[in-house]
Amino acid sequence: MIKIFSEKETIIDIGGGLRVGTKTNRRERKNDWLNEYLVKKDYKVLDKITDFNPDIVGDIQALPMPDNSVDAVICIAVLEHVEEPQRAIKEIWRVLKPGGYCFLYVPFLYYYHPCQGYYQDFYRFTIDGVKYLTRDFRSVESQSVRGAVATLANLVPIFSKRPFFSWLDKVFGKSASRQTSGYYIFCVK
Prior knowledge:
Layout: H1 2-7, E1 10-14, H2 17-20, E2 42-47, E3 56-57, E4 70-76, H3 85-95, E5 96-107, H4 127-133, E6 139-145, H5 148-154, H6 163-171, E7 182-188
């Protein structure tokens, strides 16, 4: 993501209200590192939920921006909550300028996590699904999030996000396993 903030000016963070919002964000301190990168950037949060206080109210499946108008899009942990993720990716591709960047996170082996009253939890994505969704981009790189052992532990709430299990992945050579919690994906239009 640092590449986006160091090389691009117009950045749309789809669903970012929970990450950077001041009124609704229970995870705000975790993302303080982002503040230094927002200086002198046209950074906007887009969300269809007005309670999250987005800069732009809109649906990822019908983005309210013209074609080829955005330098970069960040879309972290959103596509599993969207009714039509293929349509959402086509919209991201449409609004990105040629050479524009897109940073995504999608879950694969991950627990059910709707947000009561706001959004449902529809999908999980395999690496094959990721490749298919991002097929129109000129360049796509993906990275597994958690190896097999840490992924298994993450499915059990009391073990969730404990670094010990990532260490076990390294010891047993499971860090690059396709049995992962999800994928970070970096795309270039």
